Amino acid sequence: MNDAQRLTVLKSARAELRLTKIGYNPSGGHWHEANELLDKLAADLAAKPKWLSVGAVTKPGASLLDMRLTHNSDGIALYPAVDLAWGVGVSMYAPEACVVFLKDTSASPGEALYLKGVSGLQYWFAHLDRDYALGHSFAKGAFLAKTVYQAAGKGHGHVGVNAEVFLGKGRQLKYGRSGTGPDYTTGSPTIRAQLQASEL
Q1: pLDDT value of residue 120
Q2: Cα dist. 112→130, 133, 165 in Å?
Q3: Ranked by mean pLDDT, which of 18-27, 102-111, 125-134 comes out on top?
Q4: Which pLDDT score is estimated for 109?
Q5: For residue 180, which of 28, 57, 72, 82 sits 20 to 30 Å off, Cα-Cα?
Q6: Could you tell me the residue ranges of all domains in the chain?
Q7: Contact (Cβ atoms closer than 8 angstroms) between residue 166 and residue 97
Q8: CA dist 49 to 29, 89, 197, Å?
């Protein structure tokens, strides 16, 4: 529920209460309707966002939420990314329970995975040593793949994050110094801070 929806629920509850002619009666028509609406609002406000469970993609490692995105995923819109898991043969793990929801041919070099998490976030993992079938699922923390060799000893894993489910269709997380680049610069807020701001 977003803030506009919460406000609608609150206004509806107030409207019900204004219609009452007698004192509090929890089973009375308007009181009953108002209490149901207020209970719905309270439950929504108490619920934690699903994205809070997103964890690390390396071990040991910080939660992906605490990363600052630094560049675009070349040729893939709305998946700003961070590079990590530096080296060849470094293991990468699922940041949350997720499933392969789209197929990709390669990441040049290596394989790539489009994953959709239970939170609704979508990921593009690239420069991997293996691929999986469409619909393959992973538990949070499950092994995904290892990083492959890249020229000039710059082997790494690439993780692009699509947050349209929280930001709105066609909107993406900020990356780089200005929020829209330039590539391979820092300065944008962490993924966690951006998702928190999207809920305000």
Answers
A1: 96
A2: 8, 12, 22
A3: 125-134
A4: 93
A5: 57
A6: 3-47, 52-198
A7: no
A8: 33, 34, 12
